[in-house]
Amino acid sequence: MSTNAEGALRSGDVARAAGVNTETLRYYERRGLLPRPDRTSGGHRMYPPDTVTMLRVIKAAQRLGFTLDEVADLLEVGRHGRTNSGLQAQARTKLTEVESRITDLQVIRDSLTQALDAGCDDLVECAESSCCPLPFADIATIPIRLREES
Q1: Structural domain of residue 25, as residue ranges?
Q2: pTM for this one?
Q3: Which end of the chain has fewer CB within 10 Å, C or N?
Q4: What CATH number is associated with residue 17?
């Protein structure tokens, strides 16, 4: 690892240690998730060692389903010591969203299993058949929250 006397790390070292690429590191800087690093006289970015922890926190929050905007809000709340809209409130909201998506996924799984069990091969033909288990009319009108997230 490339460090200086204060323990600062170069971009590649930070990215490797956190399991991201350097473009992700720069993108998070542009988004304001990470503070802009100091630079050497040669122009190299030098990050404090706690940047690795911050990157891991951001990636873990994303893995838990938080968007980068939500992560930014959580980090901002933490920086200012406010707790009224902190992790507890955000986690409750996210859990509700996840439970809704799970319900949607269960409906999708059940519908696909029924289609497989019925031997459906052609979508249009199946939609016109009275023995098709897929409720095409109902499915078409139900908002799928999974699409909204994508």
Answers
A1: 9-65
A2: 0.69
A3: C
A4: 1.10.1660.10
